[in-house]
Amino acid sequence: LKKQQIYSVTFTDKIKSLEQYVLYKLAKKETLKSYHLGYYYYLEKAYEKAIRTLLGIEKKNKNINALLARIYYDTQDYDKALSFVDKAKSSALANEVIGDYFVDKEDFVSASKYYLKAAKLDKKQLGYLEKLAQVYVSLGQISKAKSIFETIVVSKNNAYLSYYNLAKLDNTKEFPYLRKAVAINMMFTDGWLALADCEMKKENLEDANRYLKIVKSIDENNFKYYYYLGVLCNKRGQKQEAQLNFQKTLLLNPEFKPAREALDI
C-alpha cells in the first residue's frame, strides 16, 4: 500500500496507522511490541493509551523516548516533552520536537537548526524538510524555502502543506496549488480559506461563499472563517453583518489583528 500512488491524506494516515499495528502483531520482543502498539495508539489519537503503553516499557531506547516527547508535546505537556527530548537527542523525531518548541517561541533561527538536523538524521521523512522550509519563509529566505517545497511536491504524493506554501509564494500558480492542497486534504481549513480569499479578490463572491461553507462544515468555531465571512459581507454591502462577524472572530481569538483592524480597534 505504501508504494501505491495514493494522494489522499486520509488514506495515507490510515496506512501509517495500520502499518504500526501490523508491526506490533509481528514483533517478537515485548519492548518492540509495546513501541509499535504505542505508536499505533498515537497515530489513532488515543494519546492516553499511547502514553500508558510506552511508559510501561522498562528499558526505553531513544525511539521510545522521542515518541513520548512527541506525544507529550502534542498534548501540550511541554515540561514532560522536553524531559524526554533530553533522553533522545540523536533521534530525528526528538529534534523535530525541539524545532517545534522554538517555532512556538518565534525563535526561527534555532528552529531551523533542529529541523535541519532532523532532516539529516532521517532523509526519508520529508515532513522535517517541510517544517524547515516553513521556517525559512518566516526568516525571509524565500528562494531556499521555495526550492525545498518544489522538491517535496515532486517526491511526495500527499504534500498538501508544500502546495499551500507554494501557492502563497507564487501568485501565478496560487489557485491550482490551493486546489491541489485541498484535494489531497479535504479537512485543510486554511486551504479552503485561502481559496475563498483568492475568489474574493477576483470578485467571484458566490464561489468564495461556497468555500467558506466548507470551512464551517469542518469547524464552525474557526475564528478565521468568521473573519473571511465578514470580508465577504463587506463586499456584498452587508456592513452590519460584516461587523458582527468581525466581532465573532475576536470572541474566538481576541488577538487576531486583521479583525481588530477591520473594527478599527
Estimated share of beta-strand residues: under 5%
Q: Give a quick account of the main beta sheet: strands, pairing sense, barrel closure.
A: none
Low-confidence segments: none
| Rg calc | 21 Å
Number-wise, the strands total: 0
| Helix percentage range | over 70%
Order of helices and strands: HHHHHHHHHHHHHHHH
Rounded mean pLDDT score: 94
Structural class: mainly alpha
Distance between the termini: 53 Å
Oligomer: single chain
Helical stretch tally: 16
Shape: elongated
Report on this structure:
- With 265 residues, this protein is mainly α.
- 74% of the residues lie in helices and 0% in strands.
- It is built from 16 helices and no strands.
Question: What is the element layout, followed by pairings?
Answer:
Elements (H helix, E strand, L loop, with lengths): L8 H18 L3 H14 L3 H9 L6 H13 L3 H8 L6 H13 L3 H14 L4 H13 L3 H14 L4 H10 L4 H11 L4 H13 L3 H14 L4 H13 L3 H14 L4 H6 L3
Question: What are the key terms here?
Answer:
265 residues, mainly alpha, 16 helices, 74% helix, 0% strand
Write a concise synopsis of the structure shown.
This protein has 265 residues and is mainly α.
